[in-house]
Design a protein that fits this description.
about 150 residues, mainly beta, Immunoglobulin-like, three-stranded antiparallel β-sheet, 10 strands
Length: about 150
């Protein structure tokens, strides 16, 4: 597969870390690879499409602003449930996309259940596939001096 993957795969190099994310919001996970003594490499995923996906951008109000640590369960209208959590820590000297990505296969909708670090549970029904959806934690929080909320 290396020959088909492109020129970056043809040159041996000391790769020291990788960060994952969907850099062009097409539902396919891309990668940035750290190369020792060289520029980072952006590896775009141009694999054939056809499957559905969902990306959740979490905004904490009572929990931390990025929703890191939130646990997410989705139940697609086709197939079984999936679990993931919000994190950015995935590699050596790298930080990946904090958004939570799900591959949905043939499913076009899903039920989304989020358990925020604050303990608040939030359920979204009939969420459409193939989108980046911003989800704001329900429940607000006490205002702080600078106008932000916890």
């Amino acid at each position: 597969m290396s020959k088909e993957a492109g020129p970056s795969f043809q040159v041996p190099a000391a790769h020291r870390g990788v960060a994952f994310g969907d850099f062009n919001n097409d539902g396919k996970i891309d990668a940035v690879v750290v190369v020792q003594n060289a520029r980072p490499e952006l590896w775009m995923n141009h694999s054939p499409g056809g499957n559905h996906w969902l990306i959740l951008y979490l905004e904490g109000t009572r929990s931390n602003r990025d929703g890191l640590g939130a646990r997410v369960k989705i139940t697609p209208n086709v197939g079984g449930p999936q679990w993931n959590h919000a994190t950015a820590a995935t590699g050596f000297s790298t930080s990946s996309d904090k958004r939570v990505h799900f591959g949905l296969g043939a499913a076009t909708k899903a039920k989304v259940e989020i358990t925020w670090p604050s303990g608040i549970q939030q359920v979204l029904m009939g969420v459409k596939a193939n989108q980046v959806l911003t989800v704001r934690e329900e429940g607000g929080g006490a205002p702080l001096r600078n106008g932000m909320r916890r």
